[in-house]
Amino acid sequence: MARDSFIFYRSFYDAIKEISEENQLKVYKAISNYALNQEEIELDGVSKAIFSLIKPQLDANYKKYENGKQKKSKKEANDKQTKSKDETNVNVNENVNVNDNVNRNNVSDSCVDGLQEIVDFYHDNIGAMSPYVFQMLEDYVKEMGKDVVMYAMKISVEADKRTMQYIKAILNNWSKKGIKTLVEAQKESRLKPKKEDKMEFNKTDRTDWDELYDN
Fold first, then answer.
1. Is the entire prediction scored with pTM above 0.85?
2. Contact 86, 72 (CB under 8 A)
3. 29 pLDDT higher than 90
């Protein structure tokens, strides 16, 4: 059902301002059409990824909007105080951060192959993914491929350095050396793959990584 208004959070603005003006316009239109008319606009690439992060919050708002309408319909028409309370309940906490509502299932539609696997691994092993981190990892996947980026993230987990800064340092070092394949990355890192794709550092390797990427 069409609505007359909706809530636009600052977290939406912060996520959208990181992308190009052309994609910003697409996302703004998609948000407005979805929030007001419950209709989705076809998007692709970065604009689609950003909208997928915002969409769960829009769905939550609409659900509370519908619940508020049902509550108000059960109360007496002259009970203005109760109506006002119900209308207030339509709103959600403005402190909710859009980055905590990453819809991982929608990222698989990205034009970058393997990005879904990257997002899932990051989410499960490192932490919540902001739009900025998403864009950065997407760029690395375009440049070096999914397997190399995944390997860098596994190194960070094995070293217990679960930060984007550590992953970025590894990937930037490989990029400078022209490394584009998993075999090259494994040779460079001197890591020994174990069964089921697990990695094991020997004592010398761990010290080398920490000295290189902690500075």
1. no
2. yes
3. yes
